[in-house]
Design brief:
The structure is a homodimer of 79-residue chains. With 79 residues, chain A is of the alpha+beta class. The first copy, chain A, has one domain: Mth169, Chain: A, CATH 3.30.1280.10. In chain A, strands 2-1-3 form a three-stranded antiparallel sheet. Chain A contains two helices and three strands. Helix content of chain A is 35%, strand content 37%. Chains A and B meet through strand 1, helix 1, strand 2 and helix 2 of A and strand 1, helix 1, strand 2 and helix 2 of B.
Chain lengths: 79, 79
């Protein structure tokens, strides 16, 4: 089963990397960029009996390794 | 306008970071993970007259800065 996990910073958390990209885009002449926030994406091929089992495994992967739940949120989409 | 840009490695490109995550998940007892590939996500707030103009600006941002088009693909979703 193919799945995509997206990890993004929570609302209040500062994102200096995003800010740097925002500045760089302005310098490069890309207009209209009001804000940029960077996150991570993981494309995972997961073996499981059904979607529910896959969801369970992917949530475990997020909680244990992929996400710092203090400052990040995650979402899981199973294809 | 809110947009999400997802940048992923092209098919044949090695992803040592993904491989490391795969190994780490196995060590942590997350079963069934057949492969992991890591990419980047950018949540961008963009000002533009319409969706077409926004799409145009975001493609420019990807081509100029966000994506290394030799080894990466990008996709743009406008909310």
């Amino acid at each position: 089963m193919k799945a995509r996990v997206i990890v993004t910073l929570k609302g209040g958390v500062l994102d200096p990397q995003g800010k740097a990209i925002e500045g760089a885009l302005k310098s490069l002449g890309v207009d209209g960029v009001a804000s940029v926030r960077q996150g991570k994406v993981f494309d995972i091929e997961i073996e499981a009996a059904d979607r529910e089992a896959a969801q369970h495994r992917l949530s475990a992967a997020c909680e244990k390794l992929l996400t710092n739940t203090i400052v990040e949120n995650y979402s899981v989409e199973i294809a």
